Amino acid sequence: MRILGVIPARFASTRFPGKPLADIGGKSMIRRVYEQCKKCNSLSRIVVATDDERIATHVKNFGEVILTATQHPSGTDRCREALAKAGGSFDYVINIQGDEPFIDPSQIDLLAGLLDGKTELATLAKVITEERHVQDPNVVKVITDLNDKALYFSRNPIPYQRSAGSQEWHELFEYKKHIGIYAYRTDILEQITKLPVSALEQSESLEQLRWLENGYRIQVGLTDLETAGIDTPEDLERAIQNLAQ
Fold first, then answer.
1. SS3 per-residue string spanning 69-133
2. Is 135 helix (H, G, I), strand (E, B) or coil?
3. What is the rounded distance in angstroms from the CA atom of residue 29 to the CA atom of residue 22?
4. Distance separating alpha carbons of residues 54 and 181, to the nearest angstrom
5. Which residue from 25, 21, 22 is spatially nearest to 244, judged by alpha carbons?
6. Distance between CA atoms of residues 66 and 56, nearest Å
7. What is the number of alpha carbons within 13 Å of residue 82 lying toward its C-beta?
8. In degrees, to the nearest 5, what angle opens at C-alpha 108 toward C-alphas 5 and 79?
9. What's the CA gap between 116 and 25, in Å, rounded?
């Protein structure tokens, strides 16, 4: 199984411009992501996909980079262009978030273990242990069928517990948080990037709902690991402090 690991990286960001080049303990964020990916056993090749020359020039010092268009609406679309430009033959693409400098390589290998040629799309989830995360709309939840395929993703708690107060919900059901790493079979990646934005996707602002709404199946692996992504300068400061401890 040949798997292309793609790390999408944009310079422009509303909350944190230039984030991929931010220094964390002497290394840029994007370099830390790349080096964690290099520790994986499952990735045949790893590339950074960016629309910015500054990021591209930096990445060339330690790894492979592919320049992509600026107008991509999502990392999935950037992965599709990177695959087209990478050359070679790949069975799957794994999209690794460029703002996860401490991602555990075993998570990527866990996701890769779900890929058997029949799997169309795959992602990860983690059991929620804190009640406040069940109710938090910034924490995306996922429910699955008995074969661990996604039924729905939502910013709301799913399912709704009709006969209990919200503070008890996490004790009554194993709510799962979606971990934002994706694997795409290469033919499926080509197909889903041609789909128009769907009604469910617009409602929840979650692109994976477009895939479900169009009949694609998403396999969900369960992990007990979770690393902190960096969305804001405040997140960066916390990461630097944690690294120094």
1. CCCCCCHHHHHHHHHHHHCCCCCEEEECCCCCCCCCHHHHHHHHCCCCCCCCEEEEEEECCCHHH
2. helix
3. 6
4. 25
5. 25
6. 7
7. 31
8. 30
9. 38
Alpha-carbon distances of 197 from 74, 82, 94, 210, 214, rounded to whole Å: 12, 21, 22, 7, 10
Cis amide bond preceding 159, omega within 30:
yes
Residues paired with 152 in a beta bridge: 143
Per the CB < 8 A criterion, the answer to whether 221 and 94 are in contact is no
Cα angle vertex 197, ends 192, 198, to 5°?
Answer: 100
What are residue 221's phi and psi, to 5 degrees? Answer: -95, 145
Type of residue found at 144:
T
Ordered per-residue pLDDT tens for the chain, 245 residues: 999 999 999 987 767 888 999 999 999 999 999 999 999 999 999 999 999 999 999 999 999 999 999 889 899 999 999 999 999 999 999 999 999 999 999 999 999 999 999 999 999 999 999 899 999 999 999 999 999 999 999 999 999 999 888 888 888 899 999 999 999 999 999 999 999 999 999 999 999 999 999 999 999 999 998 877 888 888 888 888 877 76
The residue assigned the tokens 């690294």 is 243
